[in-house]
Amino acid sequence: MNFSWLSEKPEAPEATWEDFTYYYRPNYYKVTVSERDRPERPQIYYNEALIPENEELSKNDFLPLNFLSSFYIVTHQAEVKMPSGKVDKPIIQDNRDGTVSVKYDPKEEGSHELIVKYNGEPVQGSPFKFHVDSITSGYVTAYGPGLTHGVTGEPCNFTISTKGASAAGLTMAVEGPSKVDINYHDNKDGTVSVQYLPTAPGEYHVAVRFGDKHIKGSPYVAKITGEGRKRNQISVGSCSEVTMPGEITDDDLRALNASIQAPSGLEEPCFLKRMPTGNIGISFTPRETGEHLVSVKRMGKHIPNSPFKVTVMEREVGDAKKVKVSGSGLKEGKTHTENIFSVDTRNAGYGGLSVSIEGPSKAEIQCTDKDDGTLNISYKPTEPGYYIVNLKFADHHVEGSPFTVKVAGEGSNRKREKIQRERDAVPVTEIGSKCKLTFKMPGITSFDLAARVTSPSNVTEDAEIQEVEDGLYSVHFVPKELGVHTVSVRYKDMHIPGSPFQFTVGPLHDFGSHLVKAGGNGLERGRVGVANEFNVWTREAGGGSLAISVEGPSKAEIEFKDRKDGSCDVAYKVTEPGEYRVGLKFNDRHIPDSPFKVYVSPDAGDAHKLEVQQFPEGSIQADAPYQFLVRKNGAKGELDAKIVAPSGTDDDCFIQAIDSDMTSVRFYPRENGIHAIHVKFNGVHIPGSPFRIKVGKDVADPAAVHASGSGLELVKTGHKADFIINTCNAGVGTLSVAIDGPSKVAMDCTEVEEGYKVRYTPLLPGDHYVSVKYNNIHIIGSPFKVSCEGDKMVDEGAQETSTVVVETVHKVAKSGKNTGVVMPAFKSDASQVTSKGMGLKKAFMGKTNTFTICATEAGNNILYVGMYGPKGPCEEFSIKHTGRNNYNVSYMVRDRGQYILIVKWGDEHIPGSPFQIDV
Predict the structure, then answer these.
(1) Can you give the pTM of this predicted structure?
(2) Could you give the CA distance from residue 147 to residue 479 in angstroms, rounded to a whole number?
(3) Filamin repeat boundaries (predicted)?
(4) Quick check: is 20 in a domain?
(5) What is the pLDDT of residue 516?
């Protein structure tokens, strides 16, 4: 490619990166100093030079790509990856006005990638993609950032050059997760400027056709990031209910699970519930007309009369097209006010209504049911900008959805700071090598720390903990097998934030943002003017880009320290108290539980003077009062305290002054599990607060919970998928399962022998993320990334979350290592056992009475014999095995009266048992 205004200059020798400084030696000092003092700004703007109409093009010059940059030249690196895979070096020229020009002479046709690095790390947006075609290939080409990347709520621009052809016959289309408005302007110089506004993050396909044919490179794929986007979602209303015949007790109801199969074969879990009439109702969303089959099973077996037939009429099927919406809230909105619209579902059949709103702030959604089939929905955004409103009925968009709403008004004056760092993939760990996991936990005593490692074959061993420097600790262990290990790190018998950790020995089986972990005091609470620290572990997620943002009443200073072992230490410092959001993204996707909501308290004042004494040690019991003392050490002010239970409920503590300097704090835990006791002085946490305490012996241990099954691997739309969550030996706790995916899923959870079985039916293809938490802590592997294939069964919209929560009961494993006695799997038939002898009919006092049992034909099992009389059990009993499952039994009785003799083969009585014997 060439430009005539450049071709008159004498041809410069080809410059290499190494000799670049030679050309700039005269003004090297000036360039370095002036540029070094600029703050680093990672965003890149690229604007390309326009090709003047009818300009003569020849072969040897460069197509300029201008970067508005804030980096000085000696730190810049750029390379171009050609379609053949070869790498070429462009020429970098500092314009000495804060911009750098990258010039490149293409040698191949096709899609190229330009990689721009600063201090060895790719800048945001890199690699930039551009398409090169030959002069003879045709007339029309397109270029500009809108073909490769953009940010939601901000216009994306690109230019189409028609190279002398007319703009007539040019068509454009943009397809992606949101509807987009396309605006274009003919510049009358052979170019057309195009602008489109994406309102949801994701991949957009930009198609440019000339005369019904795609131009070279079309359709282009533009990656739109949702930087700073916040979502809120509510679901209202529900399902059709049909009554099931027959009597079922409440205990039966808990043991049953049900699913409904539509005429098309789509099978979904459905819910059984007690109706006000006392009958059992089946709750489901009708998607099609005709005869449906409802299967109701107990422990995998149909109950009597199951499957039941249910006929769905046309008026019952939820039809999103018949939903009417009205109101100005779907066209425009204002910040800090309730923007209202109404929804009428009276003629639309049965179905759930789901509303999700995504935009620059998390808009609070409220729903009022007016009891006449219509609903008033309001939302209250706090920041101006473009919002996208998804409105679905029975999993299909209502007409006009998704709606793009422009919200005007004053913002909340929240300030946002962000840094981005590249994370290299950690080398593969081998068997026998020394493994290390690092974490920072300031202000603790190391002898209260303990770590254990569980291998894939369920062997648990203690691991060594070393203090690397003040407050920084590392766990060391040597693995003996390949696969995913569980590393539990506990402080005073309680998991530290982030524990239990997943640690893969050998190659990673999966990678991505869902495997990044973060934990530490800085994600739970903060203080003005001090560095609030937390850890981020990216080892399991592979290589990628980690972005950290802090948003709140004041700008944050963010510090980042890479520990070079797949973990890093982050600290932020703010100047104003209030509520902050700490966002952590890996490769443009939020990590689990991000953004974290953190309340930053004012400057400590006198709170640092207070100390706690006589705090209860070890584990305590529920439903009993406990107390500890707080010494003020001369500080003046108000003390307050509350206790937060594992279920999230909080309760006030009773505070009583003992004297002017000493205060007693009494608390009353009501459930088992890890509780947090918040103690504040003048609204600021005292040192060590919140204090964690273990209540009850059988405290739920998320490290002992495991999930497996085909429903966590590859699933298919419209087909029921399931997986088992094994809670054996994990104590009693709250199990919560959430599935985040392209659409809501029908889901249920039922008790099985080894734990709980979750069944769900996905309705849209794409990645689903299954989070399994035990007492609010992710189990190993959670969230699981599940790929779904198949046809689209409902409309696409924003990501939606479905959840189910179960209070678990204590489970003990029947088999497996380190889990107690293992019972063999017996196969037997007690009806084949025979018995004979006088001792089965009559007995004599003080004499030995005998009978024989033959179980040769009855398979293998254990013989149980017992005898009960008028004054209690029989005193003397003897059983002798004579071979081939033949037994001689003798007993002696000392009291007159009637006795009962029981003989069982395994769990079943043999023929004739129980026997009645007179003495």
Answers:
(1) 0.63
(2) 48
(3) 77-132, 132-224, 222-312, 315-407, 405-505, 516-600, 602-695, 697-788, 825-919
(4) no
(5) 92
